[in-house]
């Protein structure tokens, strides 16, 4: 339990402090008069005799160690000592293993080309070599690639497509009559002394639906026929080889004014016959013009012929006129007879 200080203790402490101050003053001022100011009075005191020294108090306990001070700075380096004498050389060590080979260095730049040497003298010509084997003809090459093909197949393979029909040239001056040729051999006898023959006609108007389009003459009636027939309405087809005369007449008509032309020609097995066309003029509205001529042709069994025509006037037609006071007029009349 903490004891509280009383007035006596306080006075004792004050007197002790005063005595301490007086003692210290006497140490510094031994021959001086010390004035003491009491409470409520003033007295002047002379110094008394020194008291005997008190006994030394007991040593206080050691205080706790202070914290270490910061390290001092490093001192300057001392001067180097003199070098000692060299020791004796040691024995040589064993050789180490060889190191791995270094990588190849980069290639140096190419040197400049040397000057060309002088040309040597030409050597003597060698002997002529043997002649090469003869090459195959176009027909032989084709036959090797097409062993089963016929000569007709070969001709068809090397023949290009039919070109467009050229414009008919101006008729030339009639040439001089040539000398009569040698008499040919007598032909084989025909059946009953006559060859094949036929006659056909058409009773319809055959129009020109597309200007400059190619049209084919057709037939819808047969008058007589022996060995010759019309297939697909237009193909004049033969059953026996020989020479035949094909004759026709076509009534042309136009239903507009102006002057126009019609070209008519012969075609064999779908391809036009060269130099077989003729140009006919058709003038004025409802003007009737008859185109009529004949062709001598040489055929093989199974061949067929057609008559084709074209005009720049879409109003031009092959005109058939029904019976009216006169017999009917066919648009086309066709006759065919064997002559050789």
Describe the sheet with the most strands. 7 strands, antiparallel
**What is the rounded distance between the termini?**
173 Å
Taken from the alpha-carbon principal axes, the silhouette is: elongated
Average pLDDT number:
79
Strand content: 25-35%
Total count of strands: 16
Please estimate the helix content.
Answer: 10-25%
Query: pLDDT under 50 segments (min length 5)?
Result: 32-45
Determine Rg (CA atoms, Å). 75 Å
Count of helical segments? 3
The string of secondary-structure elements, in order, is HEEHHEEEEEEEEEEEEEE
Structural class: alpha+beta
Name the assembly state.
single chain
Descriptive terms for the model:
3 helices; 340 residues; 27% strand
């Amino acid at each position: 339990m903490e004891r509280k200080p009383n007035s006596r203790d306080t006075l004792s402490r004050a007197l002790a402090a005063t005595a301490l101050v007086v003692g210290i003053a006497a140490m510094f001022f031994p021959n001086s008069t010390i004035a003491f100011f009491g409470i409520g009075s003033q007295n002047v005191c002379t110094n008394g005799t020194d008291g005997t020294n008190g006994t030394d108090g007991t040593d206080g306990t050691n205080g706790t160690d202070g914290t270490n001070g910061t390290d001092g700075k490093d001192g300057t380096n001392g001067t180097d000592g003199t070098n000692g004498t060299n020791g004796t050389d040691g024995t040589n060590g064993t050789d180490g293993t060889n190191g791995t080979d270094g990588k190849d260095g980069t290639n140096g730049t190419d040197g400049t080309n040397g000057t060309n040497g002088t040309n040597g003298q030409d050597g003597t010509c060698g002997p002529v070599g043997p002649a090469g084997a003869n090459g195959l003809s176009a027909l032989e090459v084709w036959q090797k690639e097409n062993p089963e093909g016929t000569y007709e197949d070969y001709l068809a393979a090397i023949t290009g497509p039919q070109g467009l029909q050229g414009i008919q040239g101006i008729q030339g001056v009639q040439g001089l009559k040539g000398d009569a040729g040698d008499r040919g051999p007598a032909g084989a006898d025909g059946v009953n002394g006559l060859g094949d023959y036929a006659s056909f006609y058409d009773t319809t108007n055959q129009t020109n639906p597309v200007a400059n389009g190619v049209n084919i003459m057709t037939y819808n009636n047969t008058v007589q026929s022996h060995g010759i027939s019309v297939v697909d309405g237009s193909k004049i087809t033969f059953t026996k080889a020989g020479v035949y005369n094909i004759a026709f007449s076509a009534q042309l008509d136009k239903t507009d004014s102006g002057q126009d032309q019609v070209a008519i020609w012969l075609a064999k097995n779908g391809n036009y016959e060269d130099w077989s066309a003729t140009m006919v003029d058709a003038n004025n509205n409802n003007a009737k013009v008859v185109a009529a001529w004949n062709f001598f042709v040489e055929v093989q069994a199974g061949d067929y012929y057609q008559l084709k025509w074209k005009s720049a006037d879409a109003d031009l037609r092959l005109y058939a006129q029904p019976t009216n006071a006169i017999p009917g007029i066919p648009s086309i009349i066709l006759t065919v007879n064997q002559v050789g």
